[in-house]
Design goal:
The protein has 1488 residues and is of the alpha+beta class.
Length: 1488
């Protein structure tokens, strides 16, 4: 590509590449610094001697190579007939990582001056030392110059390119740049093509300095006054060129400066000899147009330059006269047809001929760039290409002959036509810079705009080639750039791109304001392209000028670009051309095998879409590689390095998660974890090596986050990246632990980690000489597996050591060291995770479908931590039992949750559960287990390896961190399982809830209550916090509880209430002091009552309601408590208080609603039931006392007294007949138990009360004269007995609201069945069997018990009919037998006395006995029906109805409601009772 077919080779010279010594950048940087006391003469002498020594020591091949270069240099002075056709193909040298260097002289071995010494260089040529790096000759390359200078600090290193920090700006240059505004003050900068000089120029001043350690160069800054200072107000920067000195004086430099108005100044040398900043030559270009400005200066030949103006005028500037003396001369190039020289040419220019026409074609045209091309056949001549915005012109400039204009072509038309041919569409082109290759081809940086290229401009490197020297070139290649700048480009000024081809290619550099694009142009495409971006504050000021001419015979394996950056100084961009082209040639050969016969067009590479960063690669694999390269460069050179001027950033165009970015980030992180990255430098200091890897691993995520791509990584990927860094942090801490433990005495404990690692590696098939160091270098990823391996093998190791006394102590030390290892690994990992939680962001964005398990929450790690806690607590008990009695006593006296109690295997509460207001005895919070003087004397040493007490103290201190790690692992694991919906989440929660309080409370007897408090607060174990308050600091319990309630709020209050509730500390529960507690307690009581309506809160909740003046709620709770009370006295008290509370509500509200009325009615019913039971007790007591013939005692009711037991039996027998006890024995037993409950004041349910009232068939009346009670009480008791059945119906009607329908029906049948059986119906039938008048019939029926019950129910109690009445045929128990036996009575018999009702367990025959007794009742009822009970019931009902009607007639109005009952009475007598005339006739016939 870089050869021109239009010319023939004048002379070929082939040189074999000599073997080169390899010297890495690190070794080069370690060279000794320059000695400051060396003199100039000594330096020159040493340089000569070193050259001779080098010449002698070179092998024959290298001497021949040097001779060939010398011959090539000598040929420059001979005339050339034809231009060189092509150059020798390069012989590529070693890669960047093994940079070849020629043998160094004594001065070269000490050629590296420290950066600090360069910063300290004074201004105005103050000599403080000399750089002594040997410089190449004029035919050498810039790469050789930079190699002799040394690479400096690496800022970026890729596989095929690198950026080095060559030198910093001197202090004077930093002050100058800091004092001006680069956006408003025009500034020029550049570097010499050879040597190591640089400059920065403003309109008034130019600072020149040596940035390297060139041999003999003065380490100073030289201030040069720019020409035409009057024009400085226009803020136009001069154009400056650094001129290589004559001869081999590489230690000095000349300066050629041209102002914008054309004023020239030339300093032959500024450092040594007779030169200096005040000695210069001056001249004037005398611009043809006063509005024109000089913009560029280009070196054509040594001491021959061309200055170009904005309008395209070219001026040839010569620095030496024909005799070689310094002399400044200049003239404007003309387009004369002949070869005018000297005065005639200048006279013609003055006459205003057409020869001075500028290169611009139109008014809008302007200069873009100037480039020196190949040599021509004319002696000392060279091609010069002038690029304007529209045209490309070619000149031939010579030192000995006149200039010659060859052609001017429309460059835009040529580029647009070629691009249109490719895209088959109209393309707009623009040009930005021009350069030439060593073969004479022209390279142009162009911008193309076409619909096929998108909206943004596509930058392209175009190659143009001429068939003959004088013909216009044709576009033979277009190489598109993937890089596109963020802002619009300018075609002039500092914002325009600049194209630099060191050594004439094949490497090319496109330099932007904040970026450098490095290219290597191959036959058909760009074999290499990388963009190096700079920070906004580190803009590029200037680049190295064109390389010295002629080029070296042999192409270099590396291509280098030197540039100056605002903040960083001098930088070097190096591209490994040899390696790139070798790979490209192999790929081209492979592609050529499969290619079509017509071949491949040069520059026909696929056109990518413009993109500023990585993210638009053609394939996923290439995209991953580019991502990985960018991440590696940023991680190892950018992140955390504030002094690096390069900008490291990437973009992603993927929607959502980017798989390519994830893969690249994980690869880089994994290579750092496994120590396989070629960027990691191995070190003997393993601790520093691990910390460096940790920093790099964290930088992976830091770089992605800084680029704004954290959301492009899934949670799983972020977890993996964090895990890599966590393991490195754990490894660094573990290595510190091992360094500390090596200072201990030899033994199983001190070698625990080393032995475990060796055994672990052996178990996985890895055997190395130094297992421990090998593990930390290459197997850090298995640090969690080592912990699990230790957990599984530690018990066997301890059992092996427990055989002797000394071995037992070693076993204890092994357990202690195992704890240290676990804490060192997991605590450092957790610490890193928490410190970088915001960076990795793994908890703020939960992704349930992609939840990933962390290595610290593995079930094996949880088991390990639990066992370490258990083992540590047992170890404390073991050591304290031998050496510290106080701690041992406290441990022995403490029963932790989940501990087995030998005395009670079912015991679930611990010693802490019983504490409410007393403090559990514990050690002082300072945890001084040797608090007295004697214990301190026994301690003797703080070394656990020497003192058992010290070992005890250290082990106690380990429990807190172990518990913290254990709880965190539990929490993380539970979060993961709950997020993924795992089935074992509930089991793990149960296990965690059991383990947490156990290991928190175990710290109390070990005098670490403060640690327990902190952990309980962190993990919000509120129940344990409450326990700790009452067991460790009861004196300050109130203050502590208030502080925690303010911190945790309602949840802590509920926990405290539950604590009181569990221990039945009702007084403490209700004794709240804060208003917030009052509201929370009311809500807690209501919730507990809703969950358990008959629980303890129903008994005490009303007290808190009264405190809060909520009398309505208090009344409701009291009513429920009264109904649920098992004691009649307590029930009556509760109900009475409830009635009082209802009265308070009525007084507060001033009115009554329906709900209050209903509640009040139910309350009255409950009170009446209590009164009934009290009357029953009084009746039974009186009956028993009267039967014994003596007066009763004042205290007539006792509990489970022997005499009371006999009295209960007496009461049951006195109220029943022998016939009943014989016929229904099972029911009699039930009645006997009911009597015992009544006797003992126990509350009966409505069903039990019905049985107690209806079962007795012998109810002796109480005679007030002989009884032990008053006449009023005796009458009340007798009335209760007479009306017991109607009272049972009344009680059932009042209690029916809360009864199930089956219960209500069964109880109602029991009442009426026993009412029907209370009369002797066969005898009644016999007495009414003859001719009995109606009056006698009515009189006989009115004497029955049935008539009395119906009369009392209908008239006295006004119970609704037919709701509470049954016909004889409907009162059988057969339909409800299963319910009565199986549901109501038998379970209660079998339950014993656990419910407090007093029932005793009976035999298994109870059910059949009960069924038999109910069968007896049904048989007797059936016999009564056969005796005419149905007809008698109907007649009695009619008689009672008539009586009720007469009582409610208008003649006897009882109240305003009497008239309302008239219709009801007739209904009861006829329709409701089912009465009709036919039935009356039938009854009359039966009577007859």
């Amino acid at each position: 590509m870089f050869t021109s077919p239009s010319v023939r080779v004048r002379r070929r010279q082939t040189a074999k590449q000599p073997p080169a010594e390899v010297c890495s950048g690190e070794l080069a940087a370690a060279q000794p610094p320059l000695k400051r006391n060396s003199s100039l003469a000594g330096s020159a002498s040493t340089l000569q001697n070193s050259s001779r020594l080098q010449e002698v020591s070179l092998p024959a091949g290298q001497q021949q190579e040097q001779q060939s270069h010398t011959d090539a240099s000598s040929q420059h002075s001979h005339p050339q007939k034809k231009q060189a056709l092509e150059s020798k193909r390069p012989v590529w040298l070693a890669p960047l990582t093994q940079r070849a260097r020629r043998p160094q002289s004594a001065h070269e071995s000490s050629a590296h001056v420290s950066r600090d010494s360069r910063l300290a260089a004074p201004e105005e040529a103050e000599e403080t030392g000399f750089g002594e790096a040997a410089q190449p000759d004029r035919t050498g390359s810039t790469a050789e110059s930079t190699r002799s200078m040394g690479s400096g600090h690496v800022l970026l290193r890729g596989d095929q390119h690198a950026v080095y920090d060559a030198a910093a700006f001197p202090e004077a240059v930093r002050r100058l740049l800091g004092a001006i505004d680069l956006a408003s003050v025009p500034t020029a900068a550049g570097l010499s093509s050879s040597g190591s000089f640089a400059f920065v120029a403003t309109p008034t001043t130019c600072l020149v300095w040596s940035y390297g350690s060139a041999a003999g160069a003065a380490a100073g800054v030289y201030r040069l006054a720019m020409p035409d200072p009057a024009d400085a107000a226009g803020f136009e920067a001069p154009v400056v060129a650094l001129v290589p000195p004559a001869g081999d004086a590489q230690s000095d430099v000349g300066v050629l400066a041209c102002s914008a108005t054309g004023q020239l100044r030339y300093w032959d040398c500024v450092a040594f000899g007779l030169g200096g900043t005040d000695r210069f030559h001056s001249a004037s270009l005398e611009l043809p147009d006063a509005a024109d400005r000089c913009e560029q200066i280009t070196e054509v030949y040594p001491a021959l330059y061309v200055v170009a103006t904005a309008k395209g005028y070219l001026f040839q500037v010569s620095l030496h006269n024909p005799q070689g003396a310094a002399e400044l001369a200049a003239h404007c190039l003309s387009k004369s047809a002949g070869a005018r020289t000297g005065m005639l040419s200048r006279v013609s220019s003055l006459l205003g001929g057409p020869q001075l026409a500028p290169a611009t074609a139109a008014a809008g045209d302007a200069l873009v760039g100037v480039a020196a091309g190949a040599r021509t056949e004319i002696r000392h001549s060279r091609e010069v290409f002038v690029l304007t915005r529209q045209r490309l012109a070619k000149w031939v400039v010579s030192r000995a002959h006149s200039e010659k204009f060859l052609f001017s072509m429309d460059i835009l038309h040529a580029l647009s036509a070629e691009a249109a041919r490719r895209f088959d569409a109209d393309v707009d082109a623009s040009v930005y810079d021009v350069a030439t290759t060593r073969s004479g081809d022209v390279c142009v940086v162009a911008g193309l705009r076409a619909p096929a290229l998108g909206a943004r401009e596509q930058l392209t490197v175009a190659v143009l080639r001429s068939r003959r020297v004088s013909t216009e070139p044709e576009v033979v290649g277009l190489w598109p750039l993937r890089y596109a700048p963020d802002a619009e480009l300018a075609q002039s000024g500092p914002g325009r791109p600049r194209l630099v081809l060191p050594e004439g290619g094949p490497a090319a550099f496109v330099v932007f304001r904040h970026a450098v694009v490095a290219l290597v142009l191959a036959a058909a495409a760009a074999a290499f392209e990388e963009a190096v971006s700079f920070r906004n504050e580190d803009a590029i000021l200037g680049v190295s000028t064109a390389p010295p001419f002629p080029y070296a015979r042999q192409e270099s394996a590396e291509s280098n670009l030197m540039l100056t950056c605002v903040g960083a100084g001098v930088l070097q961009v190096c591209v490994e051309v040899g390696k790139i082209l070798s790979a490209a040639s192999l790929a081209g050969a492979s592609a050529a095998t499969d290619a079509e016969p017509h071949g491949t067009e040069m520059g026909a590479a696929p056109w990518p879409s413009p993109g500023t960063r990585v993210g638009k690669a053609s394939s996923p694999d290439s995209l991953e590689r580019e991502y990985q390269t960018q991440i590696e460069q940023a991680v190892f050179f950018g992140v955390g390095n504030t002094h690096n001027p390069l900008s490291f950033t990437i973009t992603s165009h993927a929607a959502g998660v980017d798989p390519a970015l994830e893969t690249a980030a994980l690869r880089v992180s994994q290579s750092i974890l496994d120590n396989t990255s070629h960027f990691i430098v191995d070190r003997l200091d393993l601790g520093a090596h691990l910390n460096e890897r940790l920093r790099r691993a964290r930088a992976v995520m830091q770089f992605v986050a800084d680029s704004g791509l954290a959301a492009k990584l899934s949670r799983e990927t972020r977890v993996h990246l964090c895990a890599h860094a966590e393991k490195l942090a754990a490894a660094a801490t573990l290595w510190e632990y091992q360094n500390d433990i090596w200072a201990k005495k030899a033994g199983a404990a001190s070698q625990l980690l080393a032995n475990l690692v060796a055994s672990f590696l052996e178990s996985v098939g890895l055997q190395t000489r130094d297992s421990l160091r090998s593990f930390f270098r290459q197997h850090v990823a298995a640090v969690g597996d080592v912990l699990v391996f230790m957990h599984r093998n530690l018990p066997a190791l301890r059992r092996a050591l427990n055989g002797s006394e000394s071995g037992r102590h070693d076993s204890q030390l092994v357990s202690y060291e195992a704890n240290r290892i676990v804490v060192a690994v997991l605590q450092s990992a957790m610490m890193f995770r928490f410190q970088n939680a915001a960076l990795y962001d793994v908890d703020c964005l939960p992704e349930l479908a992609a939840a990933s398990e962390r290595w610290t929450e593995h079930p094996a790690i949880i088991d390990l931590l639990v066992q370490r806690l258990e083992g540590s607590y047992r170890l404390c008990r073991e050591i304290s039992g031998q050496h510290c009695a106080s701690v041992y006593e406290r441990i022995s006296a403490t029963t932790l949750p989940s501990d087995e109690d030998p005395g009670d295997a079912n015991r679930s509460l611990s010693i802490f559960d019983a504490a409410v207001s007393i403090s559990h005895p514990c050690l002082p919070d300072a945890a001084d287990t040797h608090s007295n003087e004697e214990a301190r004397m026994r301690l003797g040493s703080d070394d656990p390896y020497v003192s058992s007490l010290a070992l005890l103290r250290e082990t106690i201190d380990q429990i807190g961190p172990l518990a913290n790690l254990c709880f965190r692992a539990f929490v993380d694991r539970i979060t993961l399982l709950q997020a993924t919906g795992a089935s074992d989440a509930a089991e793990l929660v149960r296990r965690y809830d059991a383990a947490r309080p156990r290991y928190l409370l175990c710290l109390v007897p070990l005098a670490r209550a403060s640690v327990a408090y902190r952990l309980a607060e962190e993990y919000q174990d509120l129940a344990t916090l409450v326990t700790l308050v009452f067991t460790t600091d009861s004196g300050n319990a109130v203050m502590q509880l208030r502080r925690y309630s303010e911190r945790f709020g309602r949840p802590f209050a509920d926990t405290l209430f539950a604590y009181y509730d569990k221990r039945q500390a009702w007084a403490s529960l209700l004794d709240t002091q804060d208003a917030s507690f009052d509201a929370w307690l009311k809500e807690y009581i209501d919730q507990r009552m809703a969950a358990d309506p008959h629980g303890p809160m129903a008994q005490i909740g009303w007290i808190h309601d009264v405190k809060m003046d909520d009398f309505g709620a208090a009344a409701a709770k009291l009513a429920r408590a009264g109904r649920d009370s098992l004691d009649v006295d307590q029930a009556r008290t509760m109900l009475s208080l409830s009635k009082l509370a209802f009265h308070a509500v009525e007084c507060q509200e001033g009115s009554r609603d329906a709900d209050i009325d209903e509640a009040h009615a139910r309350l009255e019913d409950a009170l009446e039931m209590c009164q009934v039971q009290e009357n029953l007790v009084q009746y039974l007591t009186t009956v028993v006392r009267d039967s014994r013939g003596h007066a009763p005692e004042l205290t007539w009711r006792r509990r489970d007294d022997v005499s009371d037991k006999k009295a209960v039996l007496d009461a049951a027998m006195l109220t029943t007949t022998p016939e009943t006890r014989h016929d229904r024995p099972a029911l009699y037993i039930v009645y006997n138990e009911l009597v015992r409950c009544i006797w003992n004041g126990r509350t009966l349910s409505a069903e039990d009360l019905v049985d107690a009232l209806t079962f007795p068939d012998s109810t002796p009346a109480i005679d007030s004269a002989s009884a032990s009670c008053s006449a009023e009480d005796a009458e009340q008791c007798n009335a209760l007995v007479r009306e017991r059945c109607s009272l049972a119906v009344d009680i059932l009607s009042r209690a029916s609201i809360g009864l199930p329908e089956q219960t209500r029906e069964a109880a109602l049948k029991t009442i009426w069945r026993r009412v029907f059986l209370s009369d002797d119906w066969p005898a009644i039938r016999k007495r009414l069997g003859g001719n009995v008048p109606d009056s006698e019939l009515r009189a006989e029926l009115e004497q029955t018990h049935l008539h009395a019950v119906l009369e009392n129910c209908l008239i006295t109690r006004e119970l609704a009919h037919p709701d509470w009445y049954l016909l004889p045929a409907d009162a059988f128990a057969a339909d409800d037998l299963d319910y009565l036996v199986s549901t109501r009575l038998e379970p209660r018999f079998a339950s014993g006395s656990e419910d407090g009702s007093g029932w005793k367990p009976l035999s298994t025959t109870t059910a059949s006995a009960l069924q038999k007794d109910y069968g007896v009742e049904d048989s007797r009822l059936r016999a009564a029906i056969d005796c005419g009970l149905d007809n008698y019931y109907t007649e009695i009902m009619r008689t009672v109805s008539d009586q009720m009607s007469r009582c409610r007639s208008p003649a006897h109005p009882a109240d305003g409601a009497a008239s309302d009952m008239d219709a009801g009475s007739s209904s009861v007598g006829t329709e409701v009772l089912g009465y009709d005339e036919d039935e009356d006739d039938e009854m009359q016939m039966e009577s007859d």
